[in-house]
Structures are given as C-alpha cells and as structure tokens.
Write a structure and sequence with these properties.
169 residues, alpha+beta, seven-stranded mixed sheet, 5 helices, 29% helix, Acyl_CoA_acyltransferase, N-acetyltransferase
Amino acid sequence: MSAVEVRRLTPADAPAYRAARLAALQADPAAFLTNATEFAVHSEAALAARLAPDAAGVTLGAFVDGQLLGLLTLVREVAPPLAHRVNVYGVSVAPQARGQGLGEALVRAGVALARSWAGVTSLHLAVMDAQDAARRLYERCGFRVWGTQPDAVRRDGRVHAEHWLVLEC
C-alpha cells in the first residue's frame, strides 16, 4: 500500500466526501446514527459548506494514491462552559483499506489537531457495542471507556449499547 496522506478536507473535496461517507454508511450502517438515505439528501453544495474553513467542524480525510478512503470529523463545543471539549464524529475507513493503518493515522492526526487548539483539554467520542475493532483502535490511540449507555440505540429490531470514550490532553 502507498503512503497515507491525512489532511483537512476543503469544499473542493465535497464530491469525494459525499461518495466516501455514503459508502461508509452503506458498508457499516450499525456504526452510525445517520443512515445512507438520510445523508443522501444533502447536496454537494451543502456538503461543500460543511467543509468550508469557517464551518463549525473540521473533517479530515485519509487519502491513498489520491483516493479518499477514510474520514474523521472534529467538532469543538461552543458553549463557554464546554469549550474545552472536542467531539469526534463520523470516523470511517473503506472496507478494502481496513487493517492498513488508515484509521490510526486519522485518529492520531485528529488528536494532534485538537491538541493544537488553545484551551482544549479533552476529546470525546462514542462507539456502538458491535464495533469492537473501532473501540480497540481508539484505545490504542489513548482513549479510555468511561461509561456505557445500555439501550442507547434501537435499529432494525436490535438494541445496541454505546460506549463513551475520553482522551484527556
């Protein structure tokens, strides 16, 4: 496999972001709260606005040979009592690229970026109980489970617990 390039996505990446996010939602629907049908209604213009430099969140992409194969979004809390916190959302790696370090490269780049923001003291994320590989990845990168919410998500007749993780900076 070629070298992994992790960088912030820009509005010009909207078509690739749309394709990668839809593919992730279709490949692993139990990992996300949003489903592919809900995401598909967003236009490329709306997605480009999400990727604009002044947007509320920052989305990083993992590229191999110019192909976007992984995603991670960071969103800093805006309310002053919570502004020390950054939430990690929408982490995914294309099935054909798993096990090759893209997820770890994304998470480590996200952690480094969040740590560079003044006043940030912790990163937070949640992972469904069925996503053991993702939980292990986060733990390798320094996150720890601090709680589990039983009966967190009900989808397709299944009940899922959600593990909550934190990384203190």
